[in-house]
Amino acid sequence: MSLPRQLRTHQRRLAGVVAAIAEGRTPARDILAAVTPGGGKSLLPVIAAARLKAAGLIDRVCWVVPRDSLRLQAEEAFADPAWRAALGHGLTVRAAENAPDPCRGLDGYVTTYQGIAAAPALHLAEFRRHRTLLVVDEMHHLPALPETDPMAAAQAEAAPEEDLAGAWSRALLPLLECAAVRLLLSGTLERADGRGILWLPYRSGPRARTREVELDAPGWAVIGYSRAQALAERAVLPVTFGAMDGEARWRDEDGHSLGPHRLANRFPDETTRPALFTALRTGFAEALLHEAFLATRDLRARRRQARGLPPGTTARGLGKLLVVAPDQATARHYLGLLRRWVPAREAEEAVALATSDSGDAQQTLAAFRLRPQPSILVTVAMAYEGLDAPEVAVVAALTHIRSRPWLEQMVARATRVDPQAGPYEQQRALVFHPDDPLFGRFRLRMETEQGTLARRPKPRRAPGVLPLWLRDQLPPREGITPLESNALALRFDTLAPGPELALKRPGLEAAADAPEAPSVAERRLRARIGEMVAAQAVEDEAMLQGPRSGLGGPGLYHRYNATLKRVLGNRSRAQMSLLELEAAIGWLERNRLAEHQHLLAGDPRYAWTARKRAEWSPPARRGGTARAAEAPRRRQGG
């Protein structure tokens, strides 16, 4: 089909990659789309699914998003009548719960990281039954795992505890291994904690103890769309920052009064975070919030006047304000302030709150996106990432978090072009923030670095010492009592476009008979092992339904992985050589993992399951051994 003219550069590139896959011109099955936040990633799954389904390469699409509020937006992307006509597709997906048959006769479904982690066996079975295009949105949320990444294996030995994000990665790994085609989306190629990202290929970085994403890895098609490119194509708006300086006083945990200390120091020091913590909960924050409120009010008044609307009239395209608060208690305080600043008759409708503890948060977010009111939304984290609300023109960044990926996502809420707000030249994103050196460092990195690095794991820390990346997202330690703060000066700066992402698409080149590089072969064999383990897990899961269903469960894939590790000398896939990986595949072709569960008997994580499985062995199946069929008779003395 011909490409619509309104497609952006990265969307056209993706269409070309998918066409090459569909026509057999490339063996690539991994597509990484590194698209600047706000650059229009939501259409990419539609383009890929439409082309691959028409070519007969996939049966279904599964789109995984990081939070529940984004599921409706994914449905809307497939249902948009303008794009259905432009792309000539008739695909429909649904927001699915963890119930059988998530597609319900449609072409695919949308779920969340949490949904996958809660019922991994259900989703894995779907992937084994149907050739699936797996779309993973905001891939940077998923850290690399020891099973597939040597550096993550070393990190796991230093700090064996697994966080929530690691659990998400563990649940998604078998789906990545079994998917027919993978489309990985992200607005940034680095994580705040410096770890690698699940499934992405890496090589040594330009600085010591770093790695960078291997953008030209064989077998991968990589599509980049930098902020500079998006600005050149008018896909996103330029950003003006309103940085407010101030000073703050607080009482430390020993009761000593400290300050006043300025926010706008040249370099971060021991007063930076306590001063920021205090400023965001006292008079400084109210002054900065008021500046953002006045800027939004003036913008809406100018746009009303340009359109000939009476004062106070609500309409789409007038501009909205997003307020990001440091915590829920402070968010409610900001909500009260804002409602006092608007006319009383409009307060309840014009200003809304969406936090994780409010029961109507999803409805509030939908109204903020799709209706003229509310025109002001106060939140903590729910609306910062992936929120498709082009009417947001002003952001009040009243948060202490200073990690680059987080702040980039927040800023991007205001950079979307609003088709109802007039010509592009008359639109601009305006972000108000405290003028602290940490935010200044974020802006400098955004202008000068591509952000594709991952740091090597550091030596294990002493108990009770938080890592820097976590401290970067937390307020100062308990004991800080904010006393007072005040605003001093406000200055405005426009963010420079930033560097280009030098991304390549090797998969589009003509396939050559060049020898396969060892690192590429290792990745291929590790993925093949994962797929074979997943196949056995799905087959045995079906056999374990009914009275013995407790022997299966959502962790069967990972128990089988642990069994394989024991069989192969306690070496994980990430640590194996090429010969060892090939031997593992040969062993899996001849054996069933269900017959070797006794190897987990000494592991407390699997002890109960191993005892129960000793009473059961699956009958012989295609690809199994005769020993599997004879096992029940041996236990009966036959």
TrEMBL record:
Q: Name the source's superkingdom.
A: Bacteria
Is Ribonucleoprotein found in the keyword set?
Answer: no
Q: Which residues form the Helicase/UvrB N-terminal domain?
A: 7-145
Does Hydrolase appear among the keywords?
yes
Stretches the record annotates as Disordered: 611-638
GO cellular component terms? cytosol
The residue ranges crossing the membrane are none
**Compositional bias annotation for Low complexity:** 618-629
Gene3D superfamilies under this entry?
A: P-loop containing nucleotide triphosphate hydrolases
Keyword set for this entry?
Answer: Endonuclease, Hydrolase, Nuclease
Q: Single GO molecular-function term?
A: DNA binding
Give the protein's recorded name.
Answer: Restriction endonuclease subunit R
Q: Which organism is it from?
A: Teichococcus aestuarii
